[in-house]
């Protein structure tokens, strides 16, 4: 029976090759898009899922609350891990600290000659961290390998890079920052790409404790690179731990500071999806975006299924005699339903095969967009095969069930006499489906237009400084390098095309944001924290920052003077900025005088408001030299800068990037979403309009004789085209009216995630209507014009 059904299905599909091609094209593109979206979502949901005690692992988050703001950081005060290990011993099995950092790694060969010199990110971790997160150890173990200072653990990949073969690495030494010789005591397996912990070089935490300054015991200074993880005891709930946090804060923080400080515990499974807090891998995607992608996938599939239903129900009339004869010959309705569903299943399977080919073609582009290795291997990930099987069954049912019910329900007598017509209910359903299909299309068009406008706004919005043509060149900060700072800066300033240079800890807007308590005008600590940055006397000139009161920083190697921004003074209720000049500020244990006020600038992305900022000079904290370049001489100037840098600092590794690129990285997620919206909006538009073309083709075929009679009676070609087009244009117009309020809700909610955003106006909605109506007009006019100019004799000669 199945063989017979398949044979009949194949004959019917071959008989209507044009409509079959339209259905396969629409379904295959829709299914390929769904497969791509599923592969990506599966990959993102796989982050950090292989740790043994995942449900009991939490990261400690620090928060600051003021009457008008709330801010969180993944960092903690340096003394916190030891304090929590002591105070929460009844609730936590383990408390582990990890500190981010970086520097120059050098390795010597057997003859004592330097063989490798490379700049690498490193982490300092204590043994407990590796007992919380169970990385695979190839050699050594946490307690033996990281319990002593000046020891280091490498990933097998890094072991191969530094020593040729990781098996030879243990027992060897590497030099770090030109001042520490670290003994390799263990090897861990390379962390997978779907991990928030890209550990390649892990130095013992005791080494960091020996290097750290006063902040090691300070509860008032928090860096986002200082993280703490905890492992709950079995049977202990995080709510129970939270009840003890107020007591912990009272014990360790000063009373005048704690009105704003707090802690919470972030589950391990949330780390990859929290854009505000981030992680060491800098790989974050919010679950809202994953939900958005899933909804787009559903829209794509729904649009393709609507195409199928519309064409199948439209064709149902032409298959009336077939149904009548089958019923007269004894076919039961359920047998007819099975036959029609078999046809749908055949088309769906063919569409899936074509969709798999399209997926393979599109996969490299998706990998390039997301900068991740996304695999389409059903052997490696059997869940993909399960998804495709479910997809086939779901599409076959959604697209085939209603047409099968309609066609199997025809009266045999009327069907054989060919008196079956499209009933009003069926016609109304087709119109509703077309409206739904185009409403989805229009929502995506509006969403795409708004996303692109917001991205353009972010690129063009003044940030309070000038990021164009500013190179950020990494510099070492050890004592030997500091003695050469003046020479390096002097020589770079002489390079043609270099307009100015400035040593600093970070650019005005950067990922490096150190929040600290401070004291203003010898009073108690302020009830909010300030973002602290350091720079030399050229900082304001190099970045184009505007001083609006007083003056900039004077030439100095140590903290003497401070410049603050407008936001800080506003939060201190200082209205006249000149009144702040001469007042003292104490921050990081150092006291100085306010000499100037800088105009507000965005120190983070446009998702966030401007922070209170304190700037000062401090030679020991510099890690960047910013170079303002003539935009016409960037390439030769950068080549000369690298050559100069290597001449002055030959022991170190050169590294540089541009301010524009760093700012662009803030909006990587928005860029990806914008690209996806453009691609999938284009796909849905294509699917919708090939379906529309198929539907108008069938309608035109059904009304061939009517068109011919009207033409004989004097109707013009334009009138005939208007007659065939009218209902379709009206349906698309109604789809716009349905889509507008839904699109408005969507774009308003998305824009609300930005502190600085465009206003939603009517133009994206009008433009979406123009686009949809224009493409509809062109699509249906091509086919209706062909019907209107057909030879009337061919249509009427059998009447």
TrEMBL record:
It comes from the Bacteria. Pfam families: FtsX (PF02687), MacB_PCD (PF12704). Residues 20-246, 505-640 form the MacB-like periplasmic core domain. Keywords: Cell membrane, Membrane, Transmembrane, Transmembrane helix. Its main location: membrane. The chain crosses the membrane at residues 20-41, 290-317, 337-363, 383-402, 432-452, 675-700, 728-748, 760-782. Residues 295-412, 679-788 form the ABC3 transporter permease C-terminal domain. PANTHER family: ABC-TYPE MACROLIDE FAMILY EXPORT SYSTEM PERMEASE COMPONENT 2, MEMBRANE COMPONENT OF TRANSPORTER-RELATED. This is ABC transporter permease. It comes from Pedobacter jeongneungensis.
């Amino acid at each position: 029976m199945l063989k017979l059904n398949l044979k009949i299905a194949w004959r019917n599909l071959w008989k209507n090759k044009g409509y079959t091609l339209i259905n396969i094209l629409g379904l295959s593109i829709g299914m390929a898009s769904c497969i791509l979206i599923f592969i990506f979502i599966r990959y993102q949901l796989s982050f950090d899922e292989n740790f043994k005690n995942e449900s009991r692992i939490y990261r400690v988050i620090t928060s600051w609350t003021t009457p008008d703001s709330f801010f969180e950081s993944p960092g903690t005060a340096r003394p916190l891990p030891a304090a929590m290990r002591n105070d929460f011993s009844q609730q936590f099995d383990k408390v582990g600290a990890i500190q981010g950092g970086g520097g120059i790694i050098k390795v010597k060969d057997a003859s004592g000659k330097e063989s490798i010199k490379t700049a690498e990110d490193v982490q300092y971790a204590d043994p407990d961290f590796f007992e919380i997160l169970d990385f695979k150890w190839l050699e050594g173990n946490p307690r033996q390998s990281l319990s002593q200072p000046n020891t280091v653990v490498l990933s097998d990949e890094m072991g191969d890079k530094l020593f040729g073969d990781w098996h030879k690495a243990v027992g060897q030494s590497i030099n770090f920052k030109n001042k520490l010789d670290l003994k390799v005591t263990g090897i861990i397996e390379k962390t997978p790409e779907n991990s928030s912990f890209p550990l390649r070089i892990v130095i013992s935490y005791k080494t960091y404790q020996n290097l750290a300054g006063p902040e090691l015991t300070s509860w008032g200074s928090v860096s986002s690179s200082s993280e703490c993880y905890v492992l709950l005891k079995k049977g202990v709930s995080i709510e129970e731990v939270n009840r003890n946090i107020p007591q912990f804060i009272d014990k360790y923080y000063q009373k005048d500071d704690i009105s704003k400080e707090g802690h919470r515990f972030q589950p391990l499974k949330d780390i990859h999806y929290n854009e505000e807090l981030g992680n060491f891998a800098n790989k974050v995607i919010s679950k809202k975006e994953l939900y958005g992608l899933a909804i787009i996938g559903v829209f794509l599939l729904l649009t393709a299924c609507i195409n199928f239903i519309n064409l199948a129900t439209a064709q149902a009339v032409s298959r009336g005699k077939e149904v009548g004869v089958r019923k007269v010959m004894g076919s039961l309705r359920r047998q007819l339903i099975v036959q029609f569903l078999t046809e749908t299943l055949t088309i769906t399977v063919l569409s899936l095969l074509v969709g798999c080919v399209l997926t393979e073609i599109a996969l490299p582009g998706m990998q390039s967009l997301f900068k991740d290795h996304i695999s389409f291997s059903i052997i490696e990930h059997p869940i993909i095969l399960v998804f495709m099987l479910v997809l086939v069954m779901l599409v076959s049912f959604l697209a085939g069930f209603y047409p099968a019910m309609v066609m199997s329900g025809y009266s045999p007598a009327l069907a054989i006499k060919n008196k079956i017509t499209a009933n009003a209910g069926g016609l109304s359903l087709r119109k509703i489906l077309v409206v739904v299909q185009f409403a989805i299309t229009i929502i995506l068009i509006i969403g795409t237009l708004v996303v692109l406008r917001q991205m353009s706004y972010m690129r063009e919005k003044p940030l309070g400084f000038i990021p164009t043509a500013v190179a950020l060149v990494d510099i070492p900060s050890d004592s030997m390098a500091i003695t050469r700072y003046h020479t390096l800066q002097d020589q770079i300033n002489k390079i043609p095309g270099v307009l100015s240079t400035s040593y600093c800890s970070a650019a005005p807007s950067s990922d490096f944001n150190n929040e600290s308590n401070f004291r203003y005008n010898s009073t108690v600590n302020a009830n909010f924290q300030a973002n602290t940055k350091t720079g030399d006397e050229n900082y304001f000139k190099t970045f184009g920052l505007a001083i609006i009161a007083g003056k900039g920083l004077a030439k100095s190697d140590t903290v003497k003077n401070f410049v603050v921004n407008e936001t800080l003074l506003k939060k201190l209720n200082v209205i006249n900025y000149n009144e702040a000049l001469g007042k003292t500020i104490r921050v990081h244990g150092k006291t100085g005088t306010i000499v100037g006020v800088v105009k507000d600038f965005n120190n983070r992305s446009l998702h966030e408001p401007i922070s209170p900022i304190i700037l000062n000079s401090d030679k020991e904290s510099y890690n960047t030299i910013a170079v303002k370049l003539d935009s016409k001489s960037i390439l030769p100037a950068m080549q000369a800068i690298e050559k100069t840098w290597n001449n002055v600092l030959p022991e170190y590794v050169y590294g540089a990037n541009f301010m524009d690129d760093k700012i662009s990285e803030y909006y990587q997620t928005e860029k990806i979403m914008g690209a996806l919206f453009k691609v999938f909006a284009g796909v849905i538009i294509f699917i919708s309009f090939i379906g529309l073309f198929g539907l108008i083709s069938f309608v035109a075929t059904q009304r061939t004789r009517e068109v011919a009679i009207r033409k004989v009676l004097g109707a013009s070609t334009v009138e005939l085209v208007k007659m065939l087009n009218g209902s379709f244009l009206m349906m698309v117009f109604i789809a716009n009216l349905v889509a507008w309020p839904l699109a408005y809700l969507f774009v308003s909610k998305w824009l609300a995630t930005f502190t600085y955003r465009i206003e939603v106006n009517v133009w994206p909605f009008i433009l979406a209507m123009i686009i949809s109506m224009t493409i509809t007009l062109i699509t249906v006019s091509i086919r209706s014009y062909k019907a209107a100019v057909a030879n009337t004799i061919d249509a009427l000669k059998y009447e």
